[in-house]
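Need a sequence for this fold. Nothing fancy.
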């Protein structure tokens, strides 16, 4: 790692990728961490759920998206903690990172207004996992 300020971006959704690209010409080293190796284009999830598209049509490897950005590194890992005092990001699989600047772009979670049990029949449509949910084994869009 160089002597330049280290910017750690957690999440490679729209927010995280936009932040990384905005820093392309800046004198910083950028590390993008995501628990998936792909960026998911969520607006087209419904087309996958209805089999108009395949999951691969709306998921693109993060490393491919940022491959031309000289100052960017992509890590596949899950952030499980942040030590703000020590300026360190802790990850599940050990890719811990020290940073000068931290961007948290981890998206959002659905709210069930105190009825968390509703999450089973009304699963959030923000994940590109296809699971077997019905007795007829019909594949439908699901979420982890
Ligand atoms: C079905 C659907 C249709 C939509 N249609 C539209 C539309 O037509 N127009 C529109 O403007 N918007 C639309 N949206 C909303 C839009 O997709 C979201 O607002 C946008 O994707 C949010 O971007 P984000 O970067 O904030 O989060 P996300 O895209 O959710 O990205 C968050 C990233 O952070 C990663 N992450 C989360 N936690 C961790 C962790 N602890 N460690 C490592 N990585 C982590 C995730 O893996 C993910 O890659 C739609 C959303 C959905 C679900």
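Here you go.
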């Amino acid at each position: 790692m160089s002597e330049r300020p280290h910017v750690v971006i957690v999440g490679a959704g729209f927010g995280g990728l936009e932040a990384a690209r905005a820093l392309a010409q800046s004198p910083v080293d950028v590390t993008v961490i995501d628990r998936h190796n792909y960026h998911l284009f969520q607006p087209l999830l419904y087309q996958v759920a209805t089999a108009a598209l395949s999951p691969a049509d709306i998921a693109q490897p993060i490393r491919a998206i940022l491959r031309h950005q000289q100052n960017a590194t992509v890590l596949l890992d899950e952030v499980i903690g942040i030590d703000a005092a020590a300026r360190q990001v802790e990850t599940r699989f050990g890719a811990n990172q020290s940073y000068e600047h931290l961007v948290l772009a981890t998206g959002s979670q659905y709210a069930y207004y105190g009825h968390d049990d509703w999450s089973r029949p009304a699963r959030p449509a923000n994940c590109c996992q296809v699971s077997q949910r019905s007795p007829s084994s019909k594949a439908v869009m699901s979420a982890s």
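For context: The longest helix spans residues 14-22.
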